[in-house]
Structures are given as structure tokens and as C-alpha cells.
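This entry is passed on directly below:
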Amino acid sequence: MKPEPVLLARVGRERSQAIDTYLADGGYEALKKVLTGGWTPEAVTEEVKKSGLRGRGGAGFPTGVKWGFVPKDTKGKPVYLLCNADESEPGTFKDRLLMEEDPHQMLEGQIISSYALKCRNSYIYVRGEFFHGARVLQRAIDEAYEKGFLGENVLGSGFSHDITVHRGAGAYICGEETGLIESLEGKRGQPRVKPPFPAVVGVFGAPTIVNNVETLCCVTHVIHRGADWFAKIGRNEKNTGPKVVIPGGASAAMLTAEEIEDCPLDFEGLAAKKSMLGSAAIIVMNEETCIVDAARNLAKFFSHESCGQCTPCREGTPWLHRVLDRIEEGEGRPEDIDLLEKIANQMGNGITLCVFADAAIAPVLSSIGKFRDEYRYHVEHKRCLVGPWTSERPRPAAARGGGNVSPGSLPPSPANGRHR
């Protein structure tokens, strides 16, 4: 039986962004169910907990449990919900796809979540480069106001809610929730020291919940079709609901073709392989990809995007890039491979304010651990182990799938394909 599309049901359809298309598919029925069906905010939270929904932004923390961290007594302060639409992971575009193709699915989930949190005002923090997506969102918000799904006294329920779109300036670190909060307040986007955590002291000093675009889309379906229905999707009770997995993603450990072959693409499956689901996106690199060049490209990105607040990250990310650049350019030294590992091991494991440094070192450490021979080849032969090959630059016998190993060359790499 062909699986029923859930999150991507309207993607690619004509006028998929329009509220009339969404309403024809039963859109905003979940919101009506909550606001006119006698649901309390606590009941919504319990339903989300029961569904097993985990955050789709990377860490995979249980959504309903996260909502429960908001203090019962907020001491007169408002509660805020922030939608993290700052999709900054290299090559990842699942949230952008959902925003641009089906914005009302996300908006409905955001309004329902705001009701559960007793939140009067919520924000969508969207990546600055997503100019088209920001326009789509604003048009959808305007439509929701016109239909009475936003504004004062929504559906005559007594619940009022407003949503504001806030465009960022294109900084990777603002995908981290406290960096996002700082930026939304008009400050430099840098992570905060924790505790206190945002659920207690967040944006404008008030209790704040930050949820990812895909997470809020899932909330819509949890309420519309029930927690039991949602929980039946997935491999087990720790991996429930639909999950969008498309090409992209960088800040996770690389896996060989053999490792990924029998690996379930969910939270526990990838953790068992000592990697992570993260933004739930995959980059596939075949035998023609230079692994050192791929690591260098990512190191350049992370070096550029470090906010510079923590010394190990500020100094370590450009150092990794410089050493990888040296190796790739044919100027590597035998001790450089060990040096890369030493630098990386002094950056991660929780010694910085956020996990940016851990993300930056993951491609470096995993690529060395699984493709060390390629690094050695670069150092010894002053060139890449893989193509493109020309008559002036013939394929060496040591290359993957290249036949017999010639004297002084290296054995083939352990995998014919690479996956992240």
C-alpha cells in the first residue's frame, strides 16, 4: 500500500499556498476542534505528550515535555512562542519547503501551540535569505486574519492571538534558540549562558518556547487526527509521526555506505551509528568525491559562521580550516592529520556555550576516522585520491575500484559510497 502523504500532502499542487486550498482539505478544523470543542490548554499539551512528538529542529526533545517547562506562575509576564524558521544547516531545505508550499499547515500548528501555552503573541523568525518564504508567510497570515483564525476573539472562543514575521540577517548561529532570541531582541545573535533556560527567561525576559517549523506542522496533525493515530506512524514509541528526510545536512558524523545500508533513519537508529538525525537531511557522496575537500568546504563554512563568543570555537574553527586547506592544496605535513584530531578534541564535548563547535568538528573527526587513508594520500602524494581524471592527471591504481595497488600507494578506501 502506498503511504499516505501527511506533511507534504499539498506540496507541488496548484495554489498550495492559498487558504482556500487548505480549507478544502480540512484545514483549520484542528483549531476549530480545540477552540470550540471545550479543549483546555492543558488538554492540548497532554495530547501532544501522548503523541510522542519530538522536536524536528535537531535535538529531538519531546515537544509536550518542553511546553511543560513554562512556569505555572509567570509572575504577570506574558508567554511567547517563537517559530524557528532560520533554516541554516548547509544543504537543508525541508522547513523552507513546508513554509513556501503549505504555510497554513504551520500557522495552524502555531496557533494551536500558542493556545496550549496561553500565549497572546508569537513570532516567526525566518532566515533573511528566505525572501520568497517570508512573503508567502505574510500573505498566509493576512489570509488567516481575514478568515478570523488570527486576531481578537478567534472563532468566538475568547482566545486572541497575533503572529509577527521577523526576518533575520542570515547568521547560522541564530538557528540556536538563545541566539535566535538575542537576535529577535535586536542584539547580536550570540547564544546565552544557560541556565536560565528560555522556558523560564526567554525573549524580553519572559517565558519562551522555541519550536521548529516542522514541529509546529506536526502539532496540527496530532490534534486533527489524534495522538494515537500520530503515534502509530514510525518505528517505535520513541520515533513517532511522519518525518521529512531530504538531501542536505552537514553537522553530523559521516557514515559509510555499509553503515547506512541497514540503518533506520530516525533518532535512535542514527544515534546507534554514532551520528544523529539532526535536521533530518542527507548528503550522498560517491567514490568520485574527495573526502578531504568535502571536509574543508564544511570547515570553511563553520569558520565563517562562528559567532566568536567562545574561545575554543572562535580560534578552533579557522584553525581546522587552515590545516584542511593546507592538506588539500598539496602542502600537508605528516603530523597534520593528528593535529586536526587534537584541535577538534579540544573544541567539543560541552566546553562552549552552544553545540556549534560540536557540529563543526563532527565532519572532521568522522572523515578522518573512516577515511584516514585519503588524508594520508593527500599528504604523501600532494594530490587527491579521487578524480576527475584526465590524461595529464591519470587515475592512480590506489584509487577506489582502481585495480591493483602499486608500490608505495595506499589501499582502496573502505567504502564505495559515503552518506551523511
